[in-house]
TrEMBL record:
Belongs to the ATP-dependent AMP-binding enzyme family. GO terms for molecular function: ligase activity. Residues 11-366 form the AMP-dependent synthetase/ligase domain. The keyword tRNA processing does not apply. Keywords: Ligase. It comes from the Bacteria. This is Long-chain fatty acid--CoA ligase.
Length: 510
């Protein structure tokens, strides 16, 4: 019997707890035990090998959330191939750049993306959950015996995840098998993940937050993930409330929590079974944290990015209320620093750039040595996030370093102003960007979505802020919109707002 490679925890659990439920797909109502999942991974491994896929080859996946993400991830591991999850919100030209940069041998796609897939690749394998004889299922059914698993190390590449970036083309962050493993170790313990864990997965699985917070750690522990095809706040609340599903864990960026708490079902939802509700990906407004605390669910904050696998810091559940607003401390096998522009450590309370180092950090970017060299100093990754440490060493993510603007010589961090805006009852959504000012260099512009049937004027917003913020932080103008642009994980796309209001020759505010 061949030795099972270290990375293949699905094979491990199939041997130890074969009847344990591994994945429950809400969209298809399909359930897979660990034995089922292991068998399907084996058949996919054989099908890919029959197509000539070998060690180091890339395989792209373009699909909404589904069990096939994990089938492909572990099939790639058994072959030594590299998984390439694609952001389905990107346009064909954007995807063309990614595929041109990564050169996958095969594109597996959901039927809903057939048009895009046909424009991107000649080598396709279609998933169609409406047809039991889809090309994907036929490939699995017709597969012969799988080849023996290859021997890999922690340094071998398991995935390449392309980050959205703020300018230019996206960068392919290299994700090693070691990074995924160390994320399971780092995150699994403080997130209280055990074989009894049942997590509702709502973030897109092409994103590290969906795949690794906490889906992979849950599978690593032998627990169960309940997969939602696309996030819907009402359906998420129904699922969490359903005792038959028994959801114990949930993770999202701030936006889904915001949309859920604004949903009519929120007050009546049964949240009593939640052991951990994690939030990360962007600074979380205090009104969101306070609303969930009032329902008995402290949101456990964390911080990370694609390049950190992603868990970099996490706030232990015991400190969730005492340190509201903090992203916690560094994970067990990770180190962090907060430094100034000269690279010197900033004293407690000071704001600087967050740096991170450890075995969970990417070795670099695919086909982009220049970006790799630029991102590291003496092995420390520059995160691009502005942060501060308090006297006890808890880290607070202030904002994206690049989102900060300078008004009259003073640094303004939009997240701080947005916290104040969310205190206005009529505000459904809000973002702050810096816009040119002839007098101050830059001043804040508030971009606000009103709640339905709520009246709110620019003067109301500014007056609210005047009593709660230093004068230089108060937005000088307010624009009302129907919706804020967001990416697939729910983060506000500040660069689109800046392009709309600044990049098209908007006049400076005097």
């Amino acid at each position: 019997m061949p030795t099972i490679p270290y990375y293949d925890w699905i094979a491990h659990h199939a041997g130890r707890r074969p009847r344990q439920l591994a994945i429950h797909d809400l969209h298809t109502a399909r359930t897979l035990t660990y034995a089922d999942l292991d068998a399907r991974i084996g058949r996919l491994t054989a099908a890919l090998a029959a197509r000539g896929i070998t060690r180091g080859d890339r395989i792209a996946l373009l699909a909404p959330n589904c069990a096939e993400y994990f089938e492909l991830q572990f099939a790639c591991g058994r072959l030594g191939a590299i998984m390439l999850p694609l952001n389905w919100r990107l346009t064909v030209p954007e995807l063309e750049y990614i595929l041109g940069d990564s050169s996958p041998k095969l594109l597996i796609h959901d039927r809903s993306f057939a048009t895009q897939a046909s424009a991107l690749s000649a080598s396709l394998l279609e998933i169609d959950h409406e047809r039991p004889d889809s090309a994907y299922e036929r490939a699995l059914a017709e597969a012969g015996p799988p080849p023996a698993p290859v021997s890999l190390t922690h340094d071998d590449i398991g995935m390449v995840m392309y980050t959205s970036g703020t300018t230019g083309h996206p960068k392919g962050a290299i994700i090693t098998h070691g990074m995924v493993f160390w994320n399971c170790v780092n995150l699994g313990i403080p997130a209280l993940i055990t074989p009894e864990t049942v997590q509702l997965v709502v973030l897109p699985l092409f994103h590290t937050g969906g795949l690794n917070c906490y889906a992979n750690p849950v599978l690593h522990a032998g627990g169960t993930i309940v997969v939602m095809r696309n996030f819907d706040p009402g359906q998420a609340l129904d699922s969490i409330s359903d005792p038959a599903l028994g959801i114990t864990h949930f993770f999202a960026v701030p936006a889904p929590y915001q949309f859920m708490m604004q949903h009519p079902k929120f007050q009546g939802a049964d949240l009593s079974r939640l052991r951990i509700a994690g939030v990360g990906g962007a600074p979380c407004a205090l009104p969101i944290l306070e609303t969930w605390i009032a329902r008995g669910v402290p949101l456990v904050q964390g911080w990370g990015m694609t390049e950190t696998s992603p868990a970099g810091t996490m706030l232990d559940a015991a400190d969730a209320i005492r340190k509201v607003g903090s992203a916690g401390k560094a994970m067990m096998h990770t180190a962090i620093r907060v430094v100034d522009d000269e690279g010197h450590d900033v004293p407690a309370g000071g704001i600087g750039e967050l740096l991170i180092k450890g075995p969970n950090i990417t070795p670099g970017y695919w086909n982009n040595e220049a970006a790799t060299q630029k991102s590291f100093t003496d092995g420390w990754l520059h995160t691009g996030d502005a942060a501060r440490l308090d006297e006890e060493g808890f880290v607070y993510i202030v904002d994206r370093w690049k989102d900060m603007y300078i008004s009259g010589g003073e640094n303004v961090y939009p997240a701080e102003v947005e916290n104040v805006l969310f205190q206005i009852p009529a505000v459904a959504d809000a973002a702050i960007i810096g816009v040119p000012s002839e007098r101050w260099g830059e001043v804040g512009m508030a971009v606000i979505v009103r709640k339905p049937d709520q009246a709110l004027a620019e003067s109301d917003v500014i007056q609210h802020c005047l009593g709660r913020l230093a004068k230089f932080k108060v937005p000088q103008s307010v624009t009302f919109v129907d919706v804020l642009p967001r990416n697939a994980t729910g983060k506000v796309l500040k660069r689109e707002l800046r392009m709309q209001y600044v990049g098209q020759g908007a006049p400076a505010i005097s």
